[in-house]
Automatic annotation (TrEMBL):
It comes from the Bacteria. The lineage of its organism: Bacteria, Pseudomonadati, Nitrospinota/Tectimicrobiota group, Candidatus Tectimicrobiota, Candidatus Entotheonellia. This is Phytanoyl-CoA dioxygenase. Keywords: Plasmid.
């Protein structure tokens, strides 16, 4: 994170687990967002879309779900659907109509000062709504990367924007385990290295600049990848770390009150959980934008998630500019010196590359 956040704010992130930017969106925009999302179909829940042919995520739902998924996919899919509709009244992914408006206000208030890295991708957004009967995600977890996003790192940052007040009285606050309290964190960048190792050796997977194009990888190669030993070790590592945190660090999570419209930055790859919503008069409403730092991995961003274009916005943190593209942000056009190093010493062997 020290290469991504400005030094001035690094300590706050490290100690508290998040950065309170002290930037607040206008009430007008917050209300406009609420009106829009409340007008969308009731009970819409986009989460189960992540589980189509996604052994990876199913495994993370617990070993039993993973086994079920492999042997009785229809039953497991139903189970997962129920799990998410029990958690939220509404979960809308990649709507993206407010991202530009939000950044207009953010950059005007110098939001780019929080970053050291020159570029950051505003990947997609998420809206979550739950009443006191829907518990949201109260279990501790870390949001691990999956094939739908394909490109995620251990240092992704999330703009966390409550659309209603999150307080002791209302509940619904975010609990975070700060890195200062525990170094247990999922080594998400390993996955990008594994992608390079598995897919870079096959020319059919590459674009004209030598970048892996996720959409070009065929089904069989994906399947072979999900059986890869290191990949499974990474998933196992996730489970072990989650168990360790649940056992030894539950008292180290921090929770804070945040007002509606208050912009917070947090890393969804650290361990976190949502507090139960207690207010019976109205629902908890949360909005998030996933921000991706750019690494020198030869991996191209995916262009479609849940049938919608995404990964099309780039923030120039030096100039404080919001750039919009018709295609996913093209990493081959970003100068190498403006990218973060995935690893200083990583050299996948030719043999390993060929061995998909
Ligand atoms: Fe999460």
């Amino acid at each position: 994170m020290h290469t991504i956040l400005s030094e001035e704010y690094l300590n706050e992130y490290y100690t508290d687990g998040y950065i309170n930017t002290d930037i607040r969106l206008t009430d007008h925009l917050v209300q406009e967002m609420r009106l829009h999302y409340n007008s969308l179909e009731e009970m819409r829940n986009d989460y189960p879309q992540y589980f189509t042919k996604n052994e990876h995520q199913a495994y993370l739902g617990g070993k039993l779900t993973g086994i079920l998924y492999n042997f009785i996919p229809g039953y497991a899919a139903k189970k997962l659907k129920k799990m998410y509709s029990d958690a939220y009244c509404k979960a809308v992914h990649a709507e993206q109509i407010f991202i530009e408006k939000i950044f207009e206000q953010l950059l005007e208030k110098n939001f780019h000062k929080f970053f050291k890295t020159k570029y950051i991708v505003a990947s997609y957004d998420i809206y979550l709504n739950n009443d006191y009967k829907h518990l949201s995600f109260t279990d501790i977890h870390s949001d691990i990367p999956n094939f739908h996003h394909f490109y995620e790192t251990e240092n992704d940052l999330t703009i966390y924007l409550p659309l209603v007040d999150l307080t002791e009285e209302n509940g619904g606050r975010l609990s975070i385990l700060p890195e200062a309290k525990s170094n247990l964190k999922i080594p998400g960048n390993v996955l990008l290295k594994l992608y390079e190792e598995a897919f870079l050796g096959n020319k059919n997977n590459l674009d004209e600049n030598g970048y892996i194009v996720p959409e070009k990888i065929n089904e069989n190669d994906y399947k072979a990848f999900t059986k890869n030993k290191t990949y499974w070790e990474l998933l196992e590592n996730y489970n072990i770390n989650t168990e360790l945190v649940a056992k030894y660090y539950m008292n180290d999570f921090v929770k804070h009150d945040w007002k509606a419209g208050n912009i917070v930055l947090f890393n969804n790859k650290t361990f976190h959980a949502a507090e139960t919503w207690r207010n019976q008069q109205y629902n908890r409403e949360i909005y998030m934008i996933r921000l991706l730092p750019i690494y020198d991995a030869k991996v191209r961003l995916k262009g479609i998630i849940h049938g919608k274009p995404f990964n099309r916005f780039l923030i120039d943190t030096e100039k404080g500019e919001f750039l919009r593209f018709d295609e996913p942000v093209d990493f081959s056009r970003i100068p190498e010196e403006d990218k973060l190093k995935l690893s200083g010493c990583y050299q996948p062997s030719v043999a390993a590359r060929a061995n998909v």
